[in-house]
Amino acid sequence: GYFGTAMTYGIKKTKMKSQIPGAHAGIQVTESSPTFYFYFDEKQAGLGRTHFGVGNLSNPNQFALLKLEVKKNDRETVTGEFGAFGSSSGSDTKAMVQFKSERIQPGLYRVTIESIQAGEYCFLAQGGPVIMGPYGGGAATGATDLFDFGVNTQ
What we know:
The protein is mainly β. The protein has one helix at residues 2-7, and strands spanning 14-21, 28-29, 35-39, 63-70, 74-83, 86-89, 96-97, 100-105, 108-112, 119-125, 130-132, 138-140, 146-151. A hairpin with a 2-residue loop joins strand 8 and strand 9.
């Protein structure tokens, strides 16, 4: 990663990855079309929300559903890239899985996934701030809202 970027003066990009400890999530589902329920606190905010960002999640559409790559002792996903010509942060679009959300009542949503393969996944809150260093390296700030699960359809 970083060595290749340094040796090519930034032409070859370095990927930033986020890791979750453990090869498997504690929650395993057996359905290939699972349903989840998201609960959010409904806050009275006058004319609108007082701030934006990860700390102010209010619906499932602020999350990305990602298929995680399983390594020996952890699971990971790409959360950004940097090189000589710029940087980007956010979830890898190749790892994203589509889902549908339906508001049942204020603060309660049903999230359905039409069809999903066996593997490890997570719902990851989108839009967390990233601080870029002098060479483009980034570090996420603040807590990340994440829900991980595995799908075992055998």
